[in-house]
Amino acid sequence: MSAYLILKHLHMTAAYLTVTLFALRLLLDAVGRPGWRQTPLRWIPHANDTVLLVAAISLLFVTPWMPFVHGWLTAKIFLLVGYIIAGVFALKTTVKTPVRVAAAVIALVQVTAIFHLAMTKPVFS
Ligand code: HEM
C-alpha cells in the first residue's frame, strides 16, 4: 500500500474515532458517569487526536492539497480550532450545564461540517 493510502486510512480511522470518543464522553457525563476521567478514556482521545493531526499534516506532503490555497482545507482548519474550543467547554465539569450542552451541540455541528468538507472538497471561488 502506498504512503498516501496508509496515511489517508490512518487519518480517516482517527477521524471516526475522535467523534466516537467525544460522543462517548458526552454520553457518560449525561448519564451521570463522570468517573471516565479516572480511566484510560482520559488520555486515549488525546493520543488519537495526535495521530489524527500527524496523519493530517503528513497528508499535506503527499497530496497536492494546501491550506490557504484550497478553501475546503482552510475552512477545515478553522472549524477544527472551533471544535477543540467547544469540545473543551462541553467536557468541563466546572462549566454550567446549559453552556456545556450548547458547547456540545456547537462542537458536533463543527465536526459534521469538517466531515462534509473533507468528503466533498468543494471549490470556493
Ligand atoms: C477533526 C479534524 C478532522 C477530521 C474529522 C478529518 C476528516 C477527514 C476525512 C473523513 C477525510 C477523508 C475524506 C474522503 O476523501 O472521503 C479527510 C481527508 C483529508 N484531510 Fe482531514 N480531517 C480533520 C482534520 C484535518 C486537518 C487539520 C488537515 C490538514 C492540516 C487535514 C487534511 C486532510 C487532507 C489533505 C485530506 C485529503 C486526503 C485526500 O483525499 O487525498 N484534515 N479528513
UniProtKB/TrEMBL annotation:
The residues that cross the membrane are 6-28, 49-66, 72-91, 98-119
Instruction: Quote the InterPro entries the UniProt record gives.
Output: SirB
> Would the keyword Membrane be found if you checked this record's keyword annotation?
yes
> GO CC annotations?
plasma membrane
Q: Which UniProt keywords apply?
A: Membrane, Transmembrane, Transmembrane helix
Keyword Transmembrane on entry: yes
Protein name, UniProt field: Protein SirB2
